[in-house]
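LAB NOTEBOOK - FOLDING QUEUE
OPERATOR: T.R.
BATCH SIZE: 2
PURPOSE: Compare the predicted structure-token outputs for two unrelated chains run back to back under identical settings.
PRIORITY: normal
REVIEWER: second-year student, initials M.K.

ITEM 1
FIELD SEQUENCE / FIELD STRUCTURE:
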Amino acid sequence: MNKRFLKLFVLCFVAMFSFVFIGCKASAPENTDQNKTDTATDSTGQNEIADTSETTTSIKSAITTAQKSITGAQTNASLPENESDYQTGVYEISSAGNYYFAGNLSGAITVNKKSGDVHLFLNGVTLSVENANAISAKTGVNLVITLMGENTLQNSKSAENGSAEHVIKAKDKLTINGSGSLTINSTKSAIGCDGTFWGLGGTLNLTAANKGITADSIYIAGSVINGVSCGGDLLHAESEYDEVATAPEFSFDRGFVYIERGEVKTATDATILGDGIQADSFVYIKGGEIDISTTPTWNDAYVATEDNEKGMYKKSGSTYEKISRESVKKGSTYCALKESVKCIKVGEIDYYLASDTKKENELEVASEKYTILIEGGELKLYSADDAIHCNSGAVIISGGDIEITTLDDGITADTTLKVMGSAVIDIKSCYEGLEAETIEISGGDTTISAIDDGVNATNSDLSEKEQAQVCQINITGGRLDVSVNPSKDSDGIDSNGGLTISGGIVITRGPNSQTASPIDASNTVVVSGGVLITIGNAPGSTGSQGRFAPGPGGAVQGGMSEGTWSISSSLVKTQSSSAGLSKGDHSITIGTTKIEYTNSYAYSGYTTVIASASATIK
């Protein structure tokens, strides 16, 4: 909602904070050419959407390479049958082999440099150390830990001159497998790994003053990660680029989080004071269960340093609510988050040049390859910050079942956001639902209940004129159901550039006033196919044009906010000033197709259907 004060007319109609249910949903056609660009800048102001197929291929190639590197030792979770094939009671290890530990341990386990493949079997172990790692492996060690039974490792810091340490520290790669569990209580991060962390089995219950697991990369295929309390991120993948001679290049081989199966979750009363999952380069979720709730810390007396400053909230009692940037004034006091508490976040790679001996100038690797790729899994995300956020890059969702509750944006990307395939997205409450410079919906089933715009193509770093030349929304398939509160000043779908609807089912609502619209675009809105249903107070509602009446050649001109409309002459308009507006369940029948939806609020104005044939609205 970046243009609210410029609007003299208001467009169609969208609803806010309507919790949209869909019983017996009509299926929508899907555009199967998932990654390709399907618009180019033209006379109607439609802009390009980037082809993301090369990035997707590179991510999958990086994971294939990682999978091929997995050894039999990493997947082996069975203690050798012959006692001669493993050693017991060895706390300082200097050679490859199998080592078995059980019961109360008398001291820390240390694996010395260049020991090679070392496999630790922990069976009902309890160990507590002070100012030290409970388990540490130096360089030249491929460490595998197999969990048997219930294990507990913890460390503490002495009152005087004590040092905070990871409970488990590995200089190279670290693998955890097995069918047992490990509870960790750490004065630093629970697990710190300079190489790749492989979670191939076992249950990890993590309490840490800093992060849960921090590693160069994190690969989860079977482990259950349970965040109990973390002073920082639960999962944190970051490559070390300090004191480099020249700027590093973006790499898909480092700084990633990959989840194939298993679970990443936070306990019922967990305290996670950072991001749930954070990665330098990409997050790729192919399966598994992810249930993350992050914990905000607030500055309730933040003084805005400029007009229109981002990220401001207001507080009423104990409840926080995000406010629009347009309402923020320099010098006024607001509430703001002290730390990032996103559920899933990517980007960017930070580094210091060697010439910066005092590390005063942290730099970032510029790239549009930063990506969040979701192809499957069940995700439940709760946050006061953005639930899913990619800096400088793209979010691509082609599968999975995603449920989001947030005070900020549901899913946001700095460049491109794509929803396709079989993805099911239910954004139960948010400030804005989907936000990116360009947005493409070619499949899936997306439901959004928003305070501000439900779907917003924007780039706040650009002027309005510049945004009009790059921002774009394309809807070619799938089902999109957007609700906004009718008493608010919010657009259901808002593009600061072009907007094209050529397929799928689009249900969008707007406020009862004429301060906003169900659909709004700075450039032309092109409707050439699919089913478009708008609910709410149509712009210029006293005139036929405001009622969505196609003119000669299908064009609708005037009374359409900042954009003009171009509707195919092959499409038919059906409109009602009574049916389909009340709170509750409704249906629209077009031929033999029945589309059902639920309004969480009562709306005034019109229910308008643009489709291939006339519709019956109930």
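ITEM 2
FIELD SEQUENCE / FIELD STRUCTURE:
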Amino acid sequence: MEEIRRTLTELKDEYLRLHTRKEDRFWIAKMGLADDPERAQRELGEAEIALNRFLQDPERLSRLRDLEASGAGSDEERKILRGWIAMFAAHGVEDPAARALSARIVEAEAELQVARGKMDLGFVDPESGARVPASSVKLSTMLRTDPDERRRRAAWEGLRSIEPFVLDHGFLDVVRMRNRFARMQGYADYYDYRLRVVERMGKDEVFGRLEDLAARTEAHTRAELEKFEKAHGPGSLEPWNFGFLRMGTVAREIDPYFDFADAIGRWGRSFAALGVKYRGATLTLDLVDRKGKYENGFMHGPGPAFFDDGVWRPARINFTANAIPGQVGSGLRAMQTLFHEGGHAAHFSNILAPAPCFSQEFAPTSVAYAETQSMFMDSLLSDADWRTRYARDAAGRQMPLELIEKAIREEQPLRAWDVRAMLTVPFAERAIYEIPDDELTPERVLREIRAVERRLTGLPAAPRPILAVPHLLAGESSAYYHAYVLAEMAVHQTRAFFLERDGHLVDNPRIGPDLAAHYWAPGNAVPFDDTLRSLTGRPLSADALVAECLLGADEACARARRQVERLASIPPFEGVPALDATIRIVHGRETIATTEGGGFPAAAARFAAWVDGQIRAAS
């Protein structure tokens, strides 16, 4: 009894020390907070290697299995022991040469990240011929919203320049090493390794699901693309035109209703109305784009939530967005990221586990399971009833139903295309890892990527170049993107359950408690499918997602009108959002606002004033 108690305490303390050290350095490096970025990246790499050594140690895993076989400990202690065993089994590496290679991979990934961070990214202004620096976030927003085709093409070419850059700066070496590491442990390749370790599924099973989804959406997508090209004329399917023409003028028309200054207030009111609580967590939010900051939203938890010998330890969580205040389309995009990462934070704040091994965001935590929580929350922003209640312009006027329907008529016909565009990333990444080492050249990689893009998008090339997706470069998010597709299936399955039971999602106070009980509380102690069965009564299925993809625009508009009519019977949220969290909003090293001392409304107001000041200063 004493040995198991001592072992569990030592595991907890050492894991938390290494995990928190690595995550704090991750924040410094990714947020561009260090005076010496290269040193910050090296320190992050060193911390990650130290954590990996702890997790990969085969002797530690063997000792834990022997302890389990002894039958020692109470039921609770044995549950905790099994959680640690699952975690070490997901990371364990018996071969010393493979462990050494793992450390070298981390170093190579850090070198690639430093090079990518120094890249002179931007576009060539077609009017002046001058090169204009721009982040990938700004270039992506230009693609969707800039009315000048020449500028959109310049933005797309700027994004695509990331591909040859990373191919020339070490990405292929990283791919070779990742594959070698996986094969040293008996896996077919790195993608196979990641799927079996993280999702506990094989490539055939996962890509069988993805191929089925692609097949069920192919004919509809092809027909809609033909209609689109006929309506918009030659050149409309070019990657720099397609996204803009899809939205027409809608992106600019809805932009005033998603003023980023009110983002914190909307998030707080909407989540509070859903009954979402953060159980005393401390949340640090960095929401605005800047040079040196990682160009993709994320949530990481330096402090996992768990019961420490029966005493609750709230989570400490960081999450980001990349808003560009004042740029058309940036407010909506930043709101989506805020809801998405805020959904992750709600999940990881509510894992009611007796040890941190159950409540951290890495293996054996399923990525598809984790992304379901975040993507469910950001899905609300497209709902007609949510937009009617929460999307307001500067004068407080709600978004008109006519504009909501206009957006639906632009977006819904190609909803299946959106899913297929998401599929391009995992299919392309799988293809990269399946290229034999002696054939792994920039030319072969780009040829494989282009073939996947054409097959799944039906366009000459993807609007978002595959290697511009940052997930592929970083070790923790590589061979990961399939999870977004699986999560999209789960999101629509979950939405369908709530809609059938309750009739609405917006301001539904049953949603937060139900998600907390069925999806969040177990952490990684329960398989992903089991969480879905617990709430919806069914295992993961693509049926609800496919039904949504094939829904006609007229039917979608009729549904929107019913949602808005029902709002009269749904009480709006009143009062102060009580999220049970300490919230700090920062911009790099600057603290913009905090709920400490003044509460949520004061923090939201200070953030709004700061954003308005940023827009004035930039104009």
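REVIEWER COMMENT (ITEM 2): Residues 203-232 form the longest helix (30 residues).
FOLLOW-UP: none requested
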